[in-house]
Structures are given as structure tokens and as C-alpha cells.
Design goal:
Elements (H helix, E strand, L loop, with lengths): L12 H22 L3 H26 L14
Helix pairs in contact: 1-2
């Protein structure tokens, strides 16, 4: 088994929201590569930024993993 106690790794509303948005963005950007369209690709890139920001904001709002609250060294945050 693992030496780490990461039972709560990624199981949060913030993580799932970010992952779903990023997967949709990756699909849109892939579509834009298959059927060359710069505007669709740029839209997918903007959606990537939205996904990253949404995940961070939700995490800061308390919807992230509780593991960060148990860190011994607060300077890591």
C-alpha cells in the first residue's frame, strides 16, 4: 500500500468543477484543431483560464479538499 495518507486527494467540488471545465475546454480545442478554426481554439483557451480560476475560487471559498487545512507548515499555502 501507499505510505501516504491521501484519502481525500481531489475529491472536492472545486476539483471536480475545474476538471469538468478543463475537459470541455480540451474537447473544444481538439475540435478546433481537427477543423481549423482559430476563434474556436481561442475560445477553448479562454475556457481553460475559466476552469483554473473557477477551481481556485471554489477552493478559496471552502469547497476544496480539507487536506490543506491540516498542513503542519502554514507557509506552504
Amino acid at each position: 500500500m501507499s505510505e501516504h495518507d491521501d484519502d481525500d486527494h481531489g475529491h472536492s467540488v472545486a476539483a471536480w468543477t475545474a476538471v469538468i471545465i478543463l475537459l470541455v475546454a480540451a474537447a473544444i480545442m481538439s475540435f478546433a484543431v481537427l477543423f481549423p478554426n482559430g476563434w474556436v481554439f481561442a475560445g477553448g483557451a479562454v475556457l481553460v483560464l475559466v476552469g483554473v480560476i473557477a477551481g481556485k475560487v471554489l477552493s478559496m471559498a471552502g469547497y476544496g479538499s480539507a487536506q490543506r487545512d491540516r498542513d503542519e507548515d502554514p507557509s506552504i499555502r
